[in-house]
Amino acid sequence: MAPARDDPRLHDEYVRTVTADESAVGDGSAAPGDVTLVGVVHDHPASVHRVRALIDARDPATVALELSPLALPLFEAYADAADGGPPSRGGEMSAAIRAADCDVTGIDAPSAAFVHRLAARIRDERPSPRTVARVLRGVASVTRHALVCRAGAAVARLTGRTVELDRPVDHDCTANDPPETQAADERRQASRSLSLTRAFETPEPVHLRDATREACMAAKLEDLRRQGDVLAVVGIDHLDGVAAELA
Questions:
Q1: What is the tens place of the pLDDT at every residue in 92-140?
Q2: Which of 63, 124, 231, 236 has the smallest set of CB atoms within 10 Å of its CB?
Q3: Is 139 among the domain residues?
Q4: Quick count: other Cβ atoms within 10 Å of Cβ 163?
């Protein structure tokens, strides 16, 4: 079903489609699929709607999420616990899982590929020891959170009780507000986030970590597109970076 094009929540500003380069296929095999990147403001009702509508409209072979594979089972539990409509926990990520009638995978750090790529980047760029220490502390923190999410998923599976580890972000609108209200609030928040990112130089540890994450996510998407079209849900701050890596 094609989404309504007059719905302001489906603005193309937050969608990038990287088409397959058929010239890169020289052995007669099928060309890789397209990758559609859907940018989101985490837990925002407009983003949740956009993700669900585009999955329904594009019917991808794979839905890829900006989640660690370790954390994915918790969001699957959130999706399974939903009783009609979008899940009450997990925002756009669990909503994407609920809407997908295809393979769903996590493409974000931490992962073995991320650690390998980060080590190579540190070796090549030779940042200061202080920067390396801050990056490693950040990676350790993210890894602990992903492991806690994995444990929470195990508890949910064994007890049937959903563990709330991913607290929703409060926004100035809800899914019950008109589409125009949701879209306007999402645009304000996205503009504010991007403006802050562009106004201040990104600290070196954050740049090192996020550049590695984006390269790693793009590499995973390149692998996934060999099986057909992919729809990837990523934070708006990473939309251009992942698209550039793919292109």
A1: 999 999 999 999 999 999 999 999 999 999 999 999 999 999 999 999 9
A2: 124
A3: yes
A4: 18
